[in-house]
């Protein structure tokens, strides 16, 4: 086991649990709002079919919620064990949003979910509708806190390093809360969740129509999901653009890596649609470029350059040298906390302390590093370009496909035309695609941040605890087995109730409602 | 308020004594999950498994005496 890198295994374990947990979250986010929309239609029109739709999709929502709940908690276990130094270093900032998320998820969300399922016969129509909206809002607020925590890892604001406690400490809760990266991530992520919910409803409804079952139910579901899905898919792309803009402002290396932009180009830079990035030669082979597009999207201007990776590495060299001044001052402060000169020097250079820590990968005392070692550490700031480049293109391509598909479905539904079997088949086959896009989105966000656990502050290799590779491998295997079993249960239950359909699942006495008439 | 409390009581009762097949399946899966997560926590991630991390250990970790981590 000694040849396995414990840090890589820690990362793999965290990634596996996070990606698994994130199979459930987007559907909860999206389906909860669709339920609220369907129930609003019920309260406004008093047509029973809308109530049946809310209850049936609510059942599937319940299965997803129950299977997904608490699967994220194992990530918090890992913070304490696998990422103990990370937890100490940034726990002061990270802890607050995570605790708020826990409170929201366990108390607010779960309470309203209970009321949603067991309040149908007891609460008034308006009361139950309020509960359904609160389920949707509560689950989205949970996501907000997680994304505030994650946004801080991407763009650490409102905090400073305290040499006395050897940790980052919060200086402004408002800066943390209104971190532009977190806000952009939140709207982009929940928007992607809405698309997921819409595609789930579209795919299953298309399956019913192809089978000639529950026609009225499926048609109405498609009407709602195509409209909501189109609006959401448009938002995801627009807000993804905003997310890209914040990345270009605050995470220049990630942007350059996603675009395989090795060298700074004259403004406005072109967008590479296709290419094969070569990390060894810093070239992108067979590239197909669209002029200007990247520069305009990333900088919102025609004359601002997007820095290339080579230039960013050169900048990182300067930051490492600057950070070494802070590192030296920190060591002096540890010897003598009252050293005013060292304190002043530390404060002046603390922003680059994290870059000096990159040298710890190669040398015990970073101050002993020569220019060659500094250059080597600076080149570490480039993440693995090839998977990022392609993950982004697949994700973005899927985003545009979602717009195209939902717009097409919306167009035909507005004509009350549900007869095109090719479109129904396409809808059914597209059901898993939002999950692929979403998981790729997480991959880009997290893998693109490497080598940092906290961007520019704490390198990942220093954030991981010294848990043996064997132990991590063993627990990783356990997680994979356990989570795979849960996923199988989830899929079996989902399949069973989808196959049953609304009539059997809700024990309704007859087929659900009349088919949509042109006047409706 | 009464309706809310009664609904929540039904929710808790359904967890304790599920009646429908779906409620039974969900309660069973949740119980297994609870046991598994608790076991995972006790076996792999309990207090004993957590390396100490305080100002002194972090100072040592990033300080000039700690050797570089293995590649």
Question: What would you say this structure looks like, in words?
Answer:
- The complex is a heterodimer of chains A (520) and B (71).
- With 520 residues, chain A is mainly alpha-helical.
- Chain A has a domain at 22-253 and 382-505.
- Helix content of chain A is 71%, strand content 6%.
- Chain A is built from 19 helices and six strands.
- Chain A has helices at residues 6-45, 48-68, 73-81, 84-118, 125-154, 173-177, 180-211, 215-250, 252-258, 293-299, 309-335, 340-349, 353-357, 371-379, 385-414, 421-429, 433-447, 460-463, 469-505, and strands spanning 159-162, 167-170, 271-278, 283-290, 452-454, 458-459.
- Chain A has a two-stranded antiparallel sheet with strand order 1-2.
- In chain A, a hairpin with a 4-residue loop joins strand 1 and strand 2.
- The longest helix of chain A has 40 residues, at 6-45.
- In chain A, 51% of the residues are buried.
- The model of chain A has no long low-confidence stretch (mean pLDDT 91).
- By secondary structure, chain B is mainly alpha-helical.
- Chain B has helices spanning 2-16, 21-44, 55-62.
- Chain B is elongated.
- The relative contact order of chain B is 0.06.
- Chain B has one domain (2-62).
- Chain B is built from three helices and no strands.
- The chains are: A mainly alpha (520), B mainly alpha (71).
- At the A-B interface, helix 2, helix 3, helix 4 and helix 19 of A face helix 1, helix 2 and helix 3 of B.
